[in-house]
Amino acid sequence: MSIKSVLLVGALAALASTAPALAADYVQTAGSSLTFATKYEGEVFTGKIPNFATKLSFDPAQLATSKLDVAIPLTGTTTANTDRDDTLRGDDFFAIAKFPQARYSATKFRSLGGNQYAADGTLTLRGVTKPVTLTFTWTPGAQPVLNGKATVKRLDFGVGGGDWADTALIPNEVSVSTKVVFAAAK
Question: Whole-prediction pTM value?
Answer without folding.
Answer: 0.87
